[in-house]
Amino acid sequence: MSVCYLAIIYIVQGTTGGMPEMVFEYILMQNGIDPVNDLSIDQSIDFGSTAAAFSGGQGDFTIEFEPGATTLEKEGVGHVVASLGTDSGYVPYTAYCAKSSYMEKNPEVLQAFTNALQKGMDYVNTHTPEEIAQIIAPQFAETDVETITTIVKRYYDQDTWKENLVFEQESFELLQDILESAGELEERVPYEALVTTTFAKAVP
Fold it and tell me: pLDDT class for 16, splitting at 50, 70, 90?
């Protein structure tokens, strides 16, 4: 059976090869959609202007970071219909890197840093969205607490936060799959060559 897809304008943040773009295209391909021939992706819009472009009538769908997505909903000009994070799986979107020489000379610094990060993970995994929103609100003075709560609840319901900081091989391979499918990775790298879980596993 042949399937015909309507060409749609998707406003995607980031330039070609940017992480949002690559994850989006990877999800499309995993669902049998050709991101080149089955739809049109507009990448010409500035990172901070995609929500305004969408609310102004450009494109049928847009990919937004928060608070952009929730703001579009509150203004009544859009609806969140899917989460790329949910559909892609655990993509290691944020990772911390250090030189081997620094790690060898300063293991106590890295361990303390990792311990502090884990405390943050423990907090968001053991408190309600309302409690989390109140704590982080001062860091987002331009956004009201109600909106922050809505955003946090969305992350909470989507199981966005891991329980630990261990960078699993499965996630590492998924990241390479995404980079490879986007044509941005010429050669795959062994997990052991770039990743250490020593500090994450040593958290008290």
Answer: low
Q: Is the peptide bond before 190 cis (omega within 30 degrees of 0)?
A: no
DSSP string, 51-68: HHHHHTT--SEE---TTH
Count the Cβ atoms, other than its own, within 10 Å of residue 112. 12
Report the distance separating Cα 181 and Cα 105, nearest Å.
37
Gap between the Cα atoms of 22 and 84, Å rounded: 11
pTM above 0.85, yes or no: no
Locate 181 and state its tokens. 């499918």
Backbone angles phi, psi at 22, to 5 degrees: -65, -40
- Lowest-confidence range among 12-16, 132-136, 174-178, 194-198? 12-16
Distances in Å between the Cα of 108 and the Cα atoms of 119, 179, 198, 200 are 17, 33, 12, 13
